[in-house]
Every structure is written in C-alpha cells, then in structure tokens.
Amino acid sequence: MKEVALNQNQFFEVEKITNGSYHPLSGFMTENEFYSVIDNYILPDGRLFSMPIFLDISKESANDLKINSNVKLLYDDNLIGEMLVESIFSCDKKKCAKKIYGTDDIQHPGVNAFYKTKEVFIGGRVAIKKRILHELSRYELTPSQTKAIFKEKKWNTVAAFHTRNPPHCAHEWLQRMTLESYDGLLIQPILGQKKPGDFLPMAVINGYQFLISKYYPRNRVILSALTTSGRYAGPREALFHALVRRNYGCTHIIIGRDHAGVNNYYDIYDSQNLCTKYEDALGIKIIKYKEPYYCSICNTITNKSACRHISSDPDSIEYISSTKIRSLLLAGLRPPPYVMRPEVIEAIYSNNMFVPE
Ligand SMILES: [Zn+2]
Q: I need a surface site. Which of 57, 81, 168, 183 has the fewest CB within 10 A?
C-alpha cells in the first residue's frame, strides 16, 4: 500500500474529520466537493459547508496513486490511519483563492498559505487507526465529549466563544454578557498553525485557565482547544466556525465584528451577515453583540447600547484589539489594566509568547 506522510496541519485535519468536528465530512474533499463548497457553500448533496478541506501532496507523490486505492496515512513516522483515494485533482490557485478568500493578493495570510500548498489535492474517506496524542491533546475535547458534558450539566443553551488570542477585557465583557443569558459557555480557542507574530498556544491556554479558575462562576465555563489552522477567510470562515461549534453541541455562537478577518480585506459586518443568512441551515444561532470598547468617561468597558460618548466624545472611546496588545508586548510594554488584566498578562508572559517571524 502506498503511503502519504502528513504534516502537522494535515494531521490535525484528519483528527477533526474523524472525530466529527467537520461533520458531515467523512474525508478530504473530492474535486466535486471542493468546487461545490467554494462556489456555492454546499456539498454536492446540498448540505451546508463553507471551507474547503483538502489534502495537498506533491506531484511526485501523486504520480503512483490510483483512484479507488487505499493509502496509508503517516504522521511523525507513525501509521495513523488510511484513506481511500476517490479523487486526484489540481486547481488554478489564483482563481480558487479569489473564490475562497475574496482576493488573490499574496499579502493576505490565508491566500499566502493557500499558494504554498502542494500541487495536487487528493480527496476521499479517511479512517483513523490509532489516536496519536500531541502536546495540545490534553487541552482538547472531542465533539462527543463536549456533548456528554453539556448533557450531564443539563445545559439547554450553550454559547461558543471563538478566539485565537489570550483574553483581554473586551473579550471578558462579551463572555460575562453571555453568561447572563445562556446556561453554559464553551471557550474554544483555535490553536493550529498560525502566522508569525500570533500568540503561541500556551499563552492563550494560560490566560484562559487563569481567568476561568479565578474569576468565572464555577461549572459554567468550559475551555477546550481546537487544533485547526486560522485561515483568515473572513465571512466564509466565520460560517465554518459556526458549523464546527454546532458539531460540538453548542446552540449559539458569538460572531464578532470582522470575525476571522484580517487587515481590511472584509467589511466589518460581512461575517455576521453571512452567518445570519445561513442561520437555519447551520443549526446554530448567531449571537451578535455591538462591539465593546473602553470609554474613559464611563471609565469602563461598554458599547454603544450603553454609553452615549461614542457620538458626543469620540476621543474618550478606545477599541481594544489583540493586534494592539501584541505590538505593545513585542515592544516590551504592558497594556494598561483596562485593556488586559495585569494578572492575565502575568499568566501569559514569557520569552516565548509569539510565533517567530
Ligand atoms: Zn461612555
């Protein structure tokens, strides 16, 4: 049997496909599925899916593969599973990038990563033979585990909070608002492949573990990592995030302003609008809060529903972003306490906080 060696990112994808995170997928996308998803946000059978999930391999490795043959999947020299090769294809990456990301600009980190994928894609069902634990496995729950926990806790409503950063005060405000209205909160940071300058996984985990263990009500908040890569695909990826959280048993998901966006590639409400449009097909409800900010007159985190100064004294308003926090920390400075709790900074601070440039 031929073999395909997976990189970490591809291994994470196999894990998600086989544990139900990417339901209804049961394998890497075939050519049909790939184009159906990037053109119409649906699989050929009509079910909603938004992000292409593909396995890229080199031309040389593809040469001796045959349709309808099984290949062994290897990771770190371990045999982890098998794949039935149902489709072998390549695509015009510029054209496809435009469809997936809305741009073919190589400066866009998602497009850039897509251009770097290998020439040939293979699609087909995958089966895992042996679960390999990795350094982040102990922070991860599978969809069947989270569903069992929600059931045991008798939570009727569970809101998902997606992030890729340690918690700042505006995140905290959103999470507290959510705890007011929903039975449980699943905080699920994505900790897969990231771009240079992003927070490393342990900074995110340490920040949240501190907040949850010291501040949030006992038994109302669950932290579970999701090892998948950030794709920076804006609205299309927001839809994917919602779909995945539905698979984890969440009834609601908070979709932020410019959710999964990067720089100024997407309009700030595109993600919320697209998710709302597909809400019924998604099977998870979208929570849209007006964006929180720090108001120096109110002297608190608030938003325009609760503070008048955004129009009368716009200079008193400061939006809080992880990008700003990262640049302060990189410059050796500490964000002020109304931006990030000093104890959270302490919990995440190390010489090894960021993905190296
Ligand atoms: Zn105010």
A: 183
The pLDDT value given to residue 239: 98
Helix (H) or strand (E) holding 94: helix 93-101
Whether 339 is in a domain gets the answer no
The secondary structure of 184-199 as a DSSP string is: EEEEEEB-SS--TTSB
Distance from Cα 123 to the centre of ligand 1, integer Å: 53
DSSP 208-277: HHHHHHHTSPTTSEEE-BB-------THHHHHHHHHHHHHTT-SEEE--TTTT--TTSS-TTHHHHHHHH
Length of the chain in residues, anyone? 357
| Per-residue pLDDT at 261 exceeds 90 | no
What are the two backbone dihedrals, phi and then psi, of residue 351, each rounded to the nearest 5 degrees?
-75, -5
Residue 29 CA, ligand 1 centroid: distance in Å: 49
Q: How far apart are the CA of 297 and the centre of ligand 1, in A?
A: 5
Cα–ligand 1 centroid distance for 313 (angstroms): 8
Distance CA 250, CA 155 (A): 10
What distance in angstroms lies between residue 113's CA and the mean position of ligand 1's atoms? 41
Residue 53's pLDDT band, with cuts at 50, 70 and 90, is very high
pLDDT (mean) for 288-309:
96
Clarify whether residues 141 and 282 are in a common domain: yes
In a domain, 105, yes or no: yes
Distances, alpha carbon 330 to alpha carbons 297, 303, 346, 356, in Å: 29, 28, 15, 11
Same domain, 186 and 243: yes
Distance in Å, CA 323 to ligand 1 centroid: 23
pTM for this predicted structure: 0.96
